[in-house]
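tool=predict chain=A
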Amino acid sequence: MPFIRTKICPPQARPGALMIERPALERALGAALTTRRLVVLCAPAGFGKTAALARQGPQLPPGSAFIWIECDEGDTPAGLLECLIAALEPHDPPWRSAPEALLRAAVEARRPTQWRAVQAELIHTLAACDVRHGVVVLDDLHRVTHPALAPALDALVERLPPQWTLALASRDRPALASLARLRAAGELAELGTDALRFDADETMRLVRAAGFDAALAGRVHARTQGWPVGVRLALQAAPLATTAPIATIATREHTADDDGGDGAAAPPIDRARFDFLVDEVIDRLPPPLRQFLLRCSILPELTAPRAAALSGDPLAAQHLDTIERTGLFAARLDDVPEPTLRLHDLFRAALQARLQRTDPVGHAKALARAAATEPDPLRRVDWLLRAQDWHGAEAALQAGAGALVAAGAGNAVQRLFDRIPPAQRSGSAGLEWLLARARWDWDGAAAALERVAVDAGAHDKPQQRLDALSRRAQVLSGANRHVEARAQLAALLADPALAGDALARTLASAAWMELGHGDERRLPALLARLLDVLERGQPLATWSECAPLPPYAGVPGLRPLLWRFVDGAERRLPDAPTPLRGSCQVLRGWLHLL
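tool=predict ok
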């Protein structure tokens, strides 16, 4: 026996290995192995194909034979036959010809008729074996590339005696001509990624078995999407005595919060997961597909047009079809207008780590290309930050921050802004003002906005200067520096260049000053002028900034103007909930009450 003995020994769970029972999978697989002619487990690395099959041996009915053959690169049909002969020996097979002669005939076979004679002898012996039921497992079949293997397996399965089942475990779908016929005849059982991945309950039980708090199971399951090796590696990466490390692993990604976090960055990936994915998956992909995935790993969702634009590969649609067909750590999204795949979180993280390590310049370019075509402002800014394009990130954040704050994503804006190194910030009145609102740091914002206004004036940017001063007037009022605020507002309203959102903001601030610290009789004129400016096409973010406060409802002469604001804002509101919609509903309620 020139091969290693363990090649025909089913793998055993190592002591201390993290294991749980999987009744649904084991029932389905057990039924298939005892009733079907051919069973195929096809899934990428780490989905537990080997473990699922190995657990079936002891569960077969008494008197059954469980034959295990581990395939290796370089195996031939004759070599696998030699393994099968050796694995059958404990069951005392009634060979009509000496096994040595059969092996010699297999090695020397050059014509189909010679192979058929070898196969006939093998099938006759299997039929005559005194076993209640027999299962022959070929594990890791994808490693064997010999061209004669598929025809040999087709011939074997076509004539397999009824008390025997052939089980194949592979990362690629076996290229057997008999699959379609066996499927139609009900003699084929196929188990893929959906059958092999952990469901939420199984993840929960594994987390508990590992000694962790069950509250973490949801995070771990969402993180790994039920990928068995991902769940185990995440749990094994932390000491069993505490839940803190796994909590860190489960939440280490910059996640999307309820207030609209970016959620676009791939998570950090620990060394064990990275080595497994690189060695067992990424490096074994065909080079064109591997390069395509590396370039597109920036994107959380892949469509053919966008993947083609990002990768420069005209075969993007073909690659996506291959990824979906082979179950390569991707899921197809439903209810979207065009075919879309989402890469598995950990697989995407390993791809990005590999790209960043081997081609950091290409990684930065891919981030920039992804940002250029990304409609979501949070993702766009995140990718620019990861590419260290500080000015581009600040410009994109400034352009989208108003709408994001109006949509309730102020905390996400704050987090993104904090990721820009202070030395790289160019100074933006809009961002300083928005962040002041998030921090309630009115005095700090007043000083920052004054610096922005002075800098804009020195560089002959009059509109930026007026924008900064109009925002400074607002924060002065918020800081209860009313004398300075009134002086700033008077100077602004006297400037004929004041227009657009800076004018609207100034009028809104002046109205607020009159309500609390001035003459309420001036309010109707200020509010009417504000509405004229807003209705000339100001963006929704400006409407949100200038929303009248509920106390206005009790001021004589303002009711028609307040209804005008509510009606105008609600005509422009999107269907989604926003702070402005809430402001309008509150104001509408006060108008009905008073």
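Residues 425 and 468 are 16 Å apart (CA to CA). The radius of gyration is 34 Å.
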